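Support reply, case 0932

Customer input (verbatim):
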Amino acid sequence: MPIRHFTKRLLSKVAWHAYNTYRKGLDYNTQFSQTTKILDAPRENIEAFQAQRLERLLKHAYRTTPYYREILKTAHSDISRIPPLEKQDIREHLDSLSSTAFTRKQRIRNATGGSTGAPLTFYQDRNYWNQRNLSVYYFDQWAGWNFGEPQLIIWGSLADLREDRPWKHQLDTFWRNQYWLNGFRLTDTAMWAAFEKMNQCQPQTILAYPSSLYQFAKFISKNGLTPLCKLKGIIASAEMLQPHYRTLAELVFKTKVHNRYGSREVGLIAMECAEGRMHINCRDLYLEIESPDPYTEPGEILITQLNNYAMPFIRYRIGDVGLLSDEICPCGSDLPILAELLGRTTATFRTRRGTLIHGGYFTQQFYDIDGVTQFQIIQESLKHCTLKVVTNEKWTEATHRYLVQRIQDALGTTVVVTVELVDDIPLPPSGKREYTISKVGSDIGDL
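Our regenerated output:
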């Protein structure tokens, strides 16, 4: 290993330790050891831990949130009798769902861009983020990641698109030993640079949007290139991992792709092990399938987040459909298995110059947009895009102009954006919410 690579890894390991000590306290190593102990425990220990955390969360929700005080009636409630928390409930009762045990300054505001077609604002707390990160560290090690090891990130960066990338992001990627390929703008030039960086820096893992990973793998394959790095694994997250995405990525990079399932609202939900099973993150959440028999009949996934005390999410209907498995996994983990996951889909948009724009760019434009209840963006052609919007009383002409401008920023200033105000955006027959659709150059099955 070249001395500069060795030095960079050593510095990054030290920086990771300093960062986690600052964020989580001097007992950070103890916390991480406890995280590992819980997630590696036998099934009966895991279930006992969950039961204890559930009881504690329900008591807290009853005592400190007006919304749940009205619903629960008592601090000792049976979770199966609690009605699911719908996204509309959060929109209508944001304040009463927020815990009075936290001041406004202690609440961390967050928002989705509307992966179900409807933007959502909510609150989290610092402990939630600390615990979330500890679990991410644990599960990402299944794919070969470790503190200080170089990693290629194929993710969305709005700062890169605006050409005003802040110094803080550059500093973060330096001490984390990460190298970025902007998934919001995949040009041939950018992918060439990322490929050369891979060969130079020898990343151990890749973290990527599945569709962006696929586009990068296809670029490498079509140009007859061979990665020189020996990857330990790839983590695919934030959207559905289509079978042909996985097939090409594993062929090109000669390593396993691990599917990671999570959401902005509740964090990491499940992760794929070396044997290809999706194990549920029982330390941070309690997962239910709304079905008469969750082992034979798929149903909607309900999530209870065990760590977010600033705004408890209890039996939250996340918008995905799943199925449980009662098999014993050959990997040795006793964490329960999510056997089937039918989630939401996204699309890759294309510009006249051949630049590929990840659908996540468009959904991020709806963060904190109060005038939109639902949306769907359709790229009809290289010259025309349709934005369907279900509006509410906060919709303004300024919002209209802002959204059109942001779409044109990505696709080109000459692209015509037609905004259609509609009453509803129904689900397609597949049941998978398509909030970004591109009719330009579909690559499904193109290996």
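We compared this against your earlier run and they match. Two observations from our side: DSSP finds 14 helices and 19 strands in the chain. Residues 351 and 411 are 5 Å apart (CA to CA). Please reopen the case if you see a mismatch on your end.
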